[in-house]
Design a protein that fits this description.
Order of helices and strands: EEEHEEHEHHHHEHEHEEHH
Shape: globular
Largest sheet: 6 strands, mixed
Number of strands: 10
CATH superfamily of the largest domain: P-loop containing nucleotide triphosphate hydrolases
Strand order of the largest sheet: 6-7-8-3-9-10
Distance between the termini: 34 Å
Number of helices: 10
CATH topology of the largest domain: Rossmann fold
Number of domains: 2
Radius of gyration: 17 Å
Helix content: 25-40%
CATH class of the largest domain: Alpha Beta
Structural class: alpha/beta
């Protein structure tokens, strides 16, 4: 579904991503874990077209993405839920969701997708006329995820979905991520809560200072002593 080969991304003279390669198979949940500054968000932004790689290939279902504008990448079936949610605070929940479908012209399909999002996130339906900026952190995360789903992506990029949430809400968000995946959406997950991320991942990669240093199934990395010491608290 998604293949990254030899990816390099720089900020001026500073090379943030140093030639990484990995794959996300159709229907999988793949997670990238690593410390702050490792390059996880930079990788996500390169995939979604927000950053231009210095070298390497990003291939989505046979289409090279590195020269394609971000909105065109969305139309090809890839959407990103950004770190920090980035909802439109002065727009209602319903308006935020409508903006997620901006590339689509199928009114009946959009309406059906909206009902699917409301089924997945009942609280968004309850607050559909409420300004997004007045929602709780957890509700804003649900809105950001719902907004991305309105584009009907085949691949969903999730950047730190549990950041700043209570343990109860973290559990709820991870259950929803699994449900989205069960419904057929492939997921690439960047998450500092390594324990929760690895528990649901088919495959996982450890990113350190711009390099992939470890890879394996979620179960393999949970058992790896290096991962346990660095990311799982022993």
């Amino acid at each position: 579904m998604l293949t990254i080969k030899g990816l390099k991304v720089s900020y001026g003279m500073i090379e943030a991503i140093k030639g990484i390669s990995f794959e996300v198979g159709d229907g999988e949940i793949v997670t990238l874990i690593g410390a702050n500054g490792a390059g996880k968000t930079t990788t996500m932004h390169a995939i979604s077209g927000l950053l231009h790689p210095r070298a390497g290939s990003i291939n989505l279902n046979g289409t090279e993405l590195t020269k394609i504008a971000p909105h065109k990448i969305v139309s090809l079936g890839l959407a990103q839920v950004p770190e920090g949610r980035r909802v439109f605070a002065q727009q209602t929940v319903e308006e935020n969701l409508a903006l997620g479908a901006f590339i689509r012209r199928d009114k009946e399909g959009i309406a059906a997708q909206l009902e699917e999002v409301f089924a997945l996130f009942p609280r968004l339906q309850e607050r559909r006329k409420q300004l997004a900026g007045t929602l709780s952190g957890g509700e804003q995360q649900m809105l950001a995820m719902g907004r991305a789903l309105m584009a009907r992506p085949r691949v969903l990029l999730l950047d730190e979905p549990s950041m700043g949430l209570s343990p109860l809400l973290v559990s709820e968000i991870f259950h929803i991520i699994e449900e989205i995946n069960r419904k057929g959406t492939t997921i690439l997950l960047v998450e500092q809560n390594a324990k929760r991320a690895l528990a649901i991942a088919d495959h996982a990669y450890v990113l350190e200072t711009g390099y992939i240093t470890l890879s394996g199934t979620g179960e393999e990395l949970v058992r790896d002593e290096r991962v346990r010491k660095a990311y799982l608290g022993g």
